[in-house]
Design goal:
The chain contains 8 helices and 13 strands. By secondary structure, it is α/β, with parallel strands linked by helices.
Length: 364
Amino acid sequence: MRVSASLTRIIGIANIVVVTVAVIGLSLLPDEGRPHAKAPIEAKVEGTAAPPTQATAGEPPGVVATPEFARQVGANEAGLVPVLMYHRILPKRYAAIDRTPDQLKKELEKLAQQGYVPITAREFATGRIPVPAGKFPVVLTFDDGHPSHFALDANGNPAAGTAVAVIQDVARRYPSFRPVATFWINKEPFGLRDLGSQATAVRWLVDHGHEVANHTWGHPNLRSLKKKKVKEQIVRLERLLGKLGVPSSRTMALPYGMLPKVEKTARTGSWDGTRYDFAGVFLAGAEPSPSPFAKKFDRGAIQRIQSNGTKGECRKWCSQYWLEWLRKHPGHRYVSDGDPGRISIPEELRGNIIAKRGLQVIVY
């Protein structure tokens, strides 16, 4: 699997092993103090940021970041962000990348206890990060639109044991834990075949703050397809989302983490008169992602971390390892200033962000 240029050869090899083992397993199984503050500089990030005193639904109260405030909360918006990757959530695991509802709940509770706040992949890729000051963003992503991710019970609530029900349960216990995630779907979202049921499901998710976006129509290995077929796979899914009443995707996840041979076609293109233009294209592993404001951020190949323990190929590449690493290396972690309209960083990191016209950068 091709990873971003900033990664080392060993990480690339590990990524191949993790994803390949998982894919083979799934294919065989059924579905079931500092100096005085410097003057602010300017920066640019894709997407439009709201005025710093405004806050949309689910966001923290308006905060206007200053150098003094950023220093007080230890803001570092050039830091690393864990983008966690989940697949099936099953009572019994059949493949390495499966997780049980209890394993998912324990991981989310640990995130909440450590001060992480979920955001969607769209919010992350566009640099719109609605996280309270002093807290850390985390992106929860679910691939393939599996029935274990979301279903409604007879009362119209998320069915017990599904990923959405687990997320809601953790949010009730930890009010600062935003109950949002990104669900990348294929042609039969959540195992539903009729358009009406599909629309009901995806609209419920979008109306409750989740993101539903593109994982291609039939989940092929895009690297094996010609450019036109790659575009067709992406556009067909975009058209389905339109029929279901979902906004055009701003993000997509690559099936198997594989970029097409003409890599730019994964991010932007057109087929049969329909265009697509993603703010972020996401890989399938193996380490935390740079901040979307960082010079090293590659929005065409955004890293994710597989949710798993530390055994076998996951001993250094999956969520348990990386969340502990970030806890032990807090200086590397993204810490929010609570102001989506400004980027706050320590003085020593001012050379790490994209310095162009755009969002104001606070240096302390």
